[in-house]
Each structure stands twice: as structure tokens, then as C-alpha cells.
């Protein structure tokens, strides 16, 4: 298949691009590089030994999309392009709705114009908002979101359902990721957030590296076994494989699936496992709860197993080991190597 990945230069998209190339699909990437580096794609090509097509452009621009869809036939789209910072979305909601919703509308229009019928969308467990039931299954309530980022994912899912109602020949699957973590085991692909990390693992790695003195632990009085927040971390390679399975099972209609492991870990369990894996110590700074956080966010991944034949196979130790390898080998993220050196 010719698969277009919007946002394919990003953290998750680059891992999906690699998995697709390894399965002999042709990969086309459209990315405006607002939060990524083209070096990720160079590394994907080196790891796979295959070429892909890269278009630098923006999903909000009709001309950019038309150029990509006219350049070669597209059989399916994996739509990853989006902004993802919860904090930033609270400060700049219009930017988030513009990018994540208006960009998606432009993509849907272009797909219709070019008669492309298959789409996989990067959604998020954030659509469940404050969980009313744990573990979260696909028929749990959505929409009770707590920030513009989450609302944008919820609204896009809703729009996609309505578009499929109007065009039943479309096959759209939304994948609700829980907490993506880890990196490619080669240490060549991974996540490198700019500035002060918001998420637990990037922050923890910077403390372990000596870049920051302490890991803030946001709340130790939750109703969890050790009082700290529990999350369902999922290895980015498991996520990538989930997309391949979703692609293989696409059929007309709108569907959504959780991509998680179903296993939760607390902040303190993560720190403990990381110290074992890395041999580094992570000094902690106990802080009050972070506004907007929930005690536990955990998936029931049963539906993806049943209908897509997919389940996560990697555990927390793999996620931490692989992400730490990436982090130690690429402390500055994607940086051009001197001429002649290996990537
Ligand atoms: P990322 O920022 O690394 O990747 C997103 C990519 O989209 C980047 O390469 C960015 O340059 C590109 N992009 C953004 N706006 C664009 C636009 N208007 N036009 C073209 N390209 C654009 O993030 P990621 O972690 O790889 O996330 C990928 C997707 O998965 C996002 O939609 C995100 O909301 C979703 N998601 C991520 C997480 C997570 O915790 N990482 C969890 C759930 C869902
Ligand atoms: C995990 C746990 C924190 C940082 C976010 C988004 C969500 C999704 C994934 C995209 C919590 C605690 C964190 C720190 C800490 N993204 N923590 N110290 O909040 O579950 O999910 O990323 O869709 O939408 O909200 O992930 O990694 O920020 O936090 O104690 O420095 O770690 O309180 O319990 P979260 P996280």
C-alpha cells in the first residue's frame, strides 16, 4: 500500500514509518517540522534500508495537501499531525483548534477530492476526560475533557463519525493511545521534547543525566497503592504495530480502539524500575497534585485484541531501557552527525 503519514517525522510517526517500510509498504510523509526533525526520517531510511517520500508542508494548507495527493496515488492515510501539549493548549486554545481540528477538516476534504477512503487517526485516552470507571473501555463516556487539546481529539473523533455517516464507504479508525513511552531498540529513534519536559519520563531522564536536580512527584496522596499517579504506559513499537494491525483490518465504517497494555504503574514504581535498569539514582521532590491530573488512567485493551488481533508485547522494563538508550545516545535529540560518521 501507499501510506501517507501526516506528522510522520514526529516521535510516534517516525516509528510507524519504520514499521510500514519493514512490512514493504511505500511511505509518504507530510510534516511541517514544527515539532520534529527531518533527521528522524533519514534514520528511518537507514534502519530500514528503504527510501520514502518526504513533503515539508502543512495540513492546514490546501495547496500542500493537494500537492501530496497529486504526486502519487494514496491508498490510506495515518493522520498523526497535531499539537499535543496540554499546558500550551490551555494558553493557546485557538492555535490547538486551528491546527488539530481545522487541519483535519482540510485533510478530510482533500481525501474526498482524491477519493481516498482509508484513514487511521491518532486519538488519545484524553477523550475519556476524568475516568468514571477503571479500566477504561471503548464504550465508556467521552467528551468530559479537561483541556483544549483533549477537546480537539474528542471533536475530531466526533467529526469523523459524522463524516462516515454521510459517506459510508469511508473506513476510519481512531486509535486512543494511553501513555506512549520508549524508543526504537536501536537507540536511533525516540522522543526529544524542547524546553522543560511536561511528561514524566523525559523529565526523569533529564534528572538521571544531571541536567535537573530532582524529579517533581506531583501528589502522593492519591487513592493508589503508594499514593502516586498510576498510568498505562505503552511502548512506541507496540503502538506502531497497533497501527499496522488497524490498517490491515480497516473496513468501511467508523471505529475506535484503545491502545494500551492494561497494566498500570505508579510514578514511584517507574522511578524504582528506572533506577534498576540504568544504575542511576533519581532524587525526588514531593509536590502537591498537578491541577487536572487524575489518580489512575488505565485501559481495557480487550477490544483491540479481539477485533484487530493486536496486543502489547513489551513491558515497562523494555520501555525504560530503550528510552534510556535513546536518551544517552542522543542527549541533544536529532543532531546532524559530522560527515562520514555513522548514524
Ligand atoms: P510529535 O509532536 O512528535 O509529532 C507530531 C508531528 O506533527 C510533528 O512532527 C509535527 O511537526 C507535525 N505537525 C504538527 N502540526 C502539523 C501541521 N499543521 N501540518 C503538518 N505537520 C504538523 O507528537 P507524537 O507524540 O508523535 O504524537 C503524534 C500524534 O499522536 C499527535 O496527534 C498526538 O496528539 C497523538 N497522541 C500523542 C500522545 C503522546 O503522549 N505522545 C498520546 C496520545 C495521542
Ligand atoms: C504521568 C504521571 C503525573 C511529570 C499526558 C497527557 C495526555 C497524553 C499523554 C496525549 C502523572 C506524574 C509527571 C512529572 C510527575 N498525551 N508526573 N512528575 O498526564 O498521564 O498524560 O501525556 O494525548 O493527554 O495529559 O502523562 O507523563 O505528564 O504524567 O509526578 O514531572 O506522572 O502527575 O501521575 P499524563 P505525564
TrEMBL record:
<comment type="similarity">
    <text>Belongs to the NAD(P)-dependent epimerase/dehydratase family.</text>
</comment>
<keyword id="KW-0413">Isomerase</keyword>
<dbReference type="GO" id="GO:0003978">
    <property type="term" value="F:UDP-glucose 4-epimerase activity"/>
</dbReference>
<comment type="subunit">
    <text>Homodimer.</text>
</comment>
<feature type="domain" description="NAD(P)-binding">
    <location>
        <begin position="4"/>
        <end position="322"/>
    </location>
</feature>
<dbReference type="InterPro" id="IPR016040">
    <property type="entry name" value="NAD(P)-bd_dom"/>
</dbReference>
<dbReference type="InterPro" id="IPR036291">
    <property type="entry name" value="NAD(P)-bd_dom_sf"/>
</dbReference>
<dbReference type="Pfam" id="PF16363">
    <property type="entry name" value="GDP_Man_Dehyd"/>
</dbReference>
<comment type="pathway">
    <text>Carbohydrate metabolism; galactose metabolism.</text>
</comment>
<dbReference type="InterPro" id="IPR005886">
    <property type="entry name" value="UDP_G4E"/>
</dbReference>
<keyword id="KW-0119">Carbohydrate metabolism</keyword>
<keyword id="KW-0520">NAD</keyword>
<protein>
    <recommendedName>
        <fullName>UDP-glucose 4-epimerase</fullName>
        <ecNumber>5.1.3.2</ecNumber>
    </recommendedName>
</protein>
Amino acid at each position: 500500500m501507499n501510506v501517507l503519514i501526516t506528522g510522520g517525522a514526529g516521535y510516534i510517526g517516525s516509528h510507524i514509518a519504520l514499521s510500514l517500510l519493514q512490512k514493504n509498504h511505500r511511505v509518504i510523509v507530510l510534516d511541517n517540522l514544527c515539532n520534529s526533525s527531518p533527521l528522524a526520517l533519514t534514520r528511518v531510511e537507514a534502519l530500514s534500508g528503504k527510501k520514502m517520500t518526504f513533503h515539508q508542508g502543512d495540513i492546514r494548507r490546501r495547496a500542500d495537501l493537494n500537492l501530496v495527493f497529486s504526486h502519487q496515488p494514496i491508498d490510506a492515510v495515518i493522520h498523526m499531525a497535531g499539537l499535543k501539549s496540554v499546558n500550551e493548549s490551555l494558553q493557546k486554545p485557538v492555535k490547538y483548534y486551528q491546527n488539530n481540528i481545522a487541519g483535519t477538516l482540510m485533510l478530510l476534504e482533500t481525501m474526498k477530492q482524491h477519493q481516498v477512503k482509508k484513514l487511521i487517526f491518532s486519538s488519545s485516552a484524553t477523550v475519556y476526560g476524568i475516568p468514571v470507571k477503571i479500566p477504561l473501555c471503548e464504550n465508556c463516556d467521552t467528551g468530559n475533557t479537561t483541556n483544549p487539546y483533549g477537546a480537539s481529539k474528542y471533536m475530531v473523533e466526533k467529526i469523523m463519525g459524522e463524516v462516515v455517516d454521510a459517506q459510508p464507504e469511508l473506513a476510519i479508525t481512531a486509535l486512543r493511545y494511553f501513555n506512549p513511552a520508549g524508543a526504537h531498540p536501536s537507540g536511533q529513534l525516540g522522543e526529544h521534547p524542547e524546553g522543560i519536559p511536561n511528561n514524566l519520563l523525559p523529565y526523569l531522564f533529564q534528572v538521571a543525566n544531571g541536567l535537573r536536580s530532582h524529579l517533581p512527584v506531583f501528589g502522593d496522596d492519591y487513592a493508589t497503592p503508594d499514593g502516586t499517579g498510576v498510568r498505562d504506559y505503552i511502548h512506541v513499537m507496540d503502538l506502531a504495530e497497533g497501527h499496522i494491525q488497524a490498517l490491515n483490518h480497516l473496513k468501511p465504517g467508523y471505529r475506535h480502539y484503545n491502545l494500551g497494555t492494561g497494566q498500570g504503574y505508579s510514578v514511584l514504581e517507574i522511578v524504582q524500575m528506572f533506577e534498576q535498569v540504568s544504575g542511576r539514582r533519581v532524587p525526588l521532590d514531593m509536590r502537591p497534585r498537578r491541577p487536572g491530573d487524575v489518580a489512575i488512567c488505565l485501559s481495557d485493551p480487550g477490544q483491540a485484541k479481539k477485533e484487530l488481533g493486536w496486543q502489547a508485547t513489551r513491558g515497562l522494563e523494555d520501555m525504560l531501557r530503550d528510552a534510556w538508550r535513546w536518551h544517552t545516545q542522543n542527549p541533544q535529540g536529532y543532531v546532524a552527525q559530522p560527515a562520514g560518521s555513522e548514524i
